[in-house]
């Protein structure tokens, strides 16, 4: 029996990036292959026709490229961390229906997927946790979730499409709390500048009921974050579309222009913060 997805619900917002990865696999098979996205979409009782029409447009396909490439980028950061910390905790902050852990699983690490209770409930039906994986329902602003993470052998945290919805002051508290609690860990996430946030305000943020975009997180330069805490060892960033593998020559002319726009005017990046190691007393 297929899982029914209601229109205009939280469930539908979870399906959109998943479907984006499926469309990207279909249209750009030389760049992406996501059999899990297809499996989950095939298991849903949901009319994808309207979403497909929108996503098959030039702008829609670029959105699908962004979603798929973002996951690819984050996977690169996770796999890089696991080279030195093979048994680390791999923590998905605001997981939705993202399956990044399974794509990075080295057979030794431990995955944690964090989100609100209603999201975790859907996830457990469609994407149940594996042997070394745990789904945890929580509010990320309630830092008690940190007690659930075993970071004794290292930890890499990541978030995709999540922090745009956080007030900057709350995100600062979260980052500082993580840096103090998980020394030597790494945090990777996507971000854009105020222009990008304004564009989001007209689309995704509007749909989420967020109106005061200036109160929510954006950044012009990743170095702005260095002043947030003395516990940050290093802050760096790379381009979405060109930083981890350059797909510029693998897409058409219009999409190349859109990549240049995102790099130069919207500053879409994957940001990485490395927390300082523990201080030995």
Fold topology:
Blueprint: E1 3-4, H1 10-27, H2 35-42, E2 44-45, H3 49-55, H4 58-84, E3 89-93, H5 100-104, E4 110-115, H6 117-126, E5 133-137, E6 155-159, H7 168-181, E7 186-191, H8 194-201, H9 204-207, E8 232-239, H10 253-266, E9 269-275
Parallel strand pairs: 1-2, 3-4, 3-6, 4-5, 6-7
Antiparallel strand pairs: 7-9, 8-9
Describe the 3D structure:
The chain is of the alpha/beta class and 281 residues long. It has a single domain (3-275), classed as 3-Layer(aba) Sandwich (Rossmann fold), CATH 3.40.50. The protein is built from ten helices and nine strands. It has helices at 10-27, 35-42, 49-55, 58-84, 100-104, 117-126, 168-181, 194-201, 204-207, 253-266; strands spanning 3-4, 44-45, 89-93, 110-115, 133-137, 155-159, 186-191, 232-239, 269-275. The strands form two sheets. It has a seven-stranded mixed sheet with strand order 5-4-3-6-7-9-8, with helices on both faces. A two-stranded parallel ribbon has the order 1-2. Helix 6 links the parallel strand 4 (110-115) and strand 5 (133-137). The radius of gyration is 18 Å and the shape is globular. The N and C termini lie far apart (58 Å). The mean pLDDT is 90.
């Amino acid at each position: 029996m297929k899982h029914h997805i209601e229109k205009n619900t939280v469930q539908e917002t979870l399906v959109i990036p998943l479907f984006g990865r499926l469309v990207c696999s279909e249209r750009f098979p030389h760049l992406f292959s996501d059999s899990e996205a297809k499996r989950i979409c095939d298991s849903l009782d949901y009319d994808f026709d309207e979403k497909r029409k929108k996503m098959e447009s030039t702008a829609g396909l670029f959105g699908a490229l962004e979603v798929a490439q973002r996951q690819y980028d984050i996977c690169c950061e996770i796999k890089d961390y696991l080279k030195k910390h093979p048994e680390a905790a791999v923590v998905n902050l605001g997981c939705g229906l993202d399956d990044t852990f399974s794509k990075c699983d080295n057979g030794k690490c431990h995955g944690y997927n964090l989100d609100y209770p209603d999201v975790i409930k859907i996830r457990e039906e469609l994407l149940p946790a594996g042997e070394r994986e745990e789904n945890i329902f929580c509010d990320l602003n309630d830092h008690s979730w940190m007690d659930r993470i075993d970071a004794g052998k290292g930890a890499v945290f990541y978030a995709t499409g999540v922090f745009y919805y956080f007030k900057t002051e709350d995100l600062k508290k979260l980052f500082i709390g993580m840096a103090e609690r998980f020394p030597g860990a790494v945090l990777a996430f996507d971000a854009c500048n105020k222009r990008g946030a304004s564009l989001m305000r007209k689309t995704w943020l509007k749909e989420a009921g967020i109106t005061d975009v200036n109160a929510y997180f954006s950044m012009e330069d990743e170095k702005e974050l260095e002043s947030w805490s003395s516990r940050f060892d290093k802050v760096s960033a790379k381009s979405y579309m060109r930083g981890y593998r350059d797909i510029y020559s693998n897409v058409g002319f219009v999409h190349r222009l859109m990549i240049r726009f995102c790099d130069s005017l919207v500053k879409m990046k994957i940001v990485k913060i490395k927390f300082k190691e523990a201080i030995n007393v």
